[in-house]
Every structure is written in structure tokens, then in C-alpha cells.
């Protein structure tokens, strides 16, 4: 599957559709070249690994008591460091990130995740290395 976004539910965006088409085309090109016996050299790629889902701060009645801080809004995949603002309470108090490493939040303040109690997802950057590959069927 390919998920391209974010975009609001029920909205079709030309730029997002174009990105999806390009990704699918690259995937199909790879399959064709692989099936033709092309050898692909080893490579390393940086990816984001999901670490945990983070909920909004809540009170004892399970009601949300803070919103995404304006400095975090629309900053998907950007580094978040210890002491950076995360949430803003309705009283104006800033709740900061307290972590021992830089994380890269994504799905920040996505409407589709409100009911799942998810304000954002924390990810970390990792490097994956792939050995060379080649189809054994020619």
C-alpha cells in the first residue's frame, strides 16, 4: 500500500495525487528492472522509526486540557529537542518536550487521530542498509 499525505478527509489535492503517481511509477519501474535481471547495488537510506504515540494532556475526567503548541503545528518530520514546546494549556502554560534524544514528530494534530487519543507520533531517524539484490530468475 501507498499512503500519501497528510490531507483532510474528503479532499483531493492535485499535488498529493501527483506525488502518489510518481511513487507508484517508481515502484513499478523497480519491479520491471528487477524482473529483467538488473542488479541493484547496496545502499543505505535514512528512515523514521515510530517510537510511540503521544496523547494530548488530559485531566482526571479524561478531557483534553491542552492543544498543540503553535511552534509545533505543521512541523511534521522536523527535529524536536528537549525543552522545545509541545502543548499549550487553555490557561497559557507551555508544556515542553522532556526527552533524552531528538525525535521527529509526525501526524501532528491530525483530525483523524483525535478519537484515537493521539496528538502526534514520535519517531527517530535510523539508517537501513540493504545488500545488493538481483533476480535469480532470468
UniProtKB/TrEMBL annotation:
Domain AstE/AspA barrel-sandwich hybrid: 44-123
A GO CC annotation given for this chain: cytosol
Entry GO MF terms: hydrolase activity, acting on carbon-nitrogen (but not peptide) bonds, in linear amides
Name of this chain's protein: ACY2 Aspartoacylase
Organism: Chunga burmeisteri (Black-legged seriema)
Gene encoding the protein: Aspa_0
